[in-house]
Amino acid sequence: MIEVCFSLLLSFFQPGLPDNLESKHFVLVHGAGNGAWCWYKSIALLEESGFTASTVDLTGSGIDHTDPNTISTLSQYVKPLLSLLEKLPDNEKVILVGHDFGGACISYAMEAFPTKICKAVFVSAAMVANGQRASDIFAPELITADDLLPKAQQFVYANGSSSVPTALEFDKSLIKDLFFNQSPAKDVALATVSLRPVPFAPTLERLCLTQERYGSVRRFFIQTTDDCALTPALQERLISSNPPEKVFLLKGSDHSPFFSKPQSLHKLLLEIAQIEPLKPSSPSLPPPPPSLQDTEEQQQR
């Protein structure tokens, strides 16, 4: 009820945006199995507040028709995001928001296009450090017997059972308890019919993240307190091993705050957007690693 009242007040008494914002453009990046569809509440709230909100379907996600079993690299998976950033005007910067595995995806993008991103927000997301894989955050020694994630995961072997997994799916009988334990029934129903298999190879790829490029983008983390997928303990471990500029707490949220606490999430995004810019400095950026150069060249062809 409080969430609904907040939304109504927001729509009737929406102040104008401050003129000194670094960016009025949010780019929302979904997590594993999701698609751009999961951000529908956040898109509406941001646009009502005067922001531009863009989303992408990562390769093999949402309405993208690519077979997830055929996606073999992280660069292939994040190509739609890189294409969006590459096409931005030279003088435009965005606030990049990543959820779940989308955290690894925005990290890759931060390394590729650091001058086009003013802030990066990790919403219960894989905020990995240099040399880490997204799958490392769920290392067996970090998982307890009570964790739902291992029970809900189902591996897909498109190349035969003797080969490595090509994708993973989630047991639909467990996804409510795992991802949406505080979310409205209608959103759980939407997710149940919309979730797609997750390409497995990209989760095993180690990220090359440099201080000069990735490290030049301001990072913020939003913790979700009732999260049964990326548990509070795992979130704390991510934060301590790769500290962001600031951590925000989203109380009462499951793993999907865009469903369970959309207005509270929106309030935090507005707060982050209004954090004042750092004093300007102009260090020269080194060229991207060869793999990223190749990616950018392919996009320009």
Automatic annotation (TrEMBL):
Lineage, top ranks: Eukaryota, Viridiplantae, Streptophyta, Embryophyta, Tracheophyta
Gene Ontology biological process terms in this record: jasmonic acid metabolic process; salicylic acid metabolic process
InterPro entries named in the record: AB_hydrolase_1, AB_hydrolase_fold, MES/HNL
Pfam families: Abhydrolase_6
Protein keywords: Hydrolase, Signal
Domain AB hydrolase-1, residue spans: 26-263
Region (Disordered) location: 278-301
Signal sequence interval, chain numbering: 1-18
Record's protein name: AB hydrolase-1 domain-containing protein
Domain of life: Eukaryota
GO molecular function, one term: methyl jasmonate esterase activity
